[in-house]
């Protein structure tokens, strides 16, 4: 590459994968970064870079890469949930909450995003905040029972038996 003054993101990614397989993650990160510079929209390179940062226990760098990947894949609900979990584990509660709200902001008209934030709110013991999201899931997927069952579960947890029965 230096001799011909040409670089190949595909070759850099392959080198990074080889280094990662050999557990030489610092070298892998260097190659994945070069691959990313030449091909910034390659999801596989992003994910490999995150994995190597995780292997090196570089949480800040991994979060930056997950953020970059979430910009590339704005509707990827599991990815946004992963970002939330990473930030929470780092003790960055404000940033984690922002990542949580981004789950639904990325796709406000999709039942999947409302279902994900409702489930998260229940895990956080914030059942009252889960209710409107379960209602939205029920509206968006009127022919499926998931939204209504989630809504009824949340309402029962809150002692709203009559609402759940309705």
Keywords summarizing the entry:
10 helices; 166 residues; elongated
Beta-strand content bin: under 5%
* Biggest beta sheet attributes: none
Q: Which stretches of 5+ consecutive residues score pLDDT under 50?
A: none
Order of helices and strands: HHHHHHHHHH
Instruction: Please state the average pLDDT score.
Output: 93
> Quick one: how many beta strands?
0
Structure overview:
The chain is mainly alpha-helical. The radius of gyration is 20 Å and the shape is elongated. The mean pLDDT is 93.
Q: Quick summary of this structure?
A:
By secondary structure, the protein is mainly α.
Topology (SSEs and partners):
Layout: H1 9-21, H2 25-38, H3 43-55, H4 59-72, H5 77-89, H6 93-105, H7 111-123, H8 127-140, H9 146-157, H10 161-165
Helix pairs in contact: 1-2, 2-3, 3-4, 4-5, 5-6, 6-7, 7-8, 8-9
């Amino acid at each position: 590459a230096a001799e011909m003054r040409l670089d190949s993101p595909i070759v850099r990614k392959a080198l990074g994968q080889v280094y990662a397989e050999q557990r030489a993650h610092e070298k892998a990160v260097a190659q994945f970064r070069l691959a990313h510079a030449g091909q910034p929209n390659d999801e596989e390179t992003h994910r490999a870079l995150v994995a190597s940062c995780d292997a090196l226990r570089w949480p800040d760098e991994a979060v930056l890469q997950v953020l970059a990947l979430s910009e590339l894949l704005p509707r990827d609900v599991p990815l946004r949930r992963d970002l939330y979990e990473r930030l929470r584990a780092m003790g960055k509660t404000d940033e984690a909450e922002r990542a949580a709200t981004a789950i639904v902001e990325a796709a406000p008209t999709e039942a999947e995003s409302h279902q994900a934030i409702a489930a998260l709110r229940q895990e956080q013991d914030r059942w009252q905040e889960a209710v409107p999201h379960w209602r939205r899931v029920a509206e968006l997927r009127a022919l499926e029972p998931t939204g209504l069952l989630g809504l009824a579960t949340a309402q029962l947890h809150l002692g709203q038996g009559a609402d759940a029965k309705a």
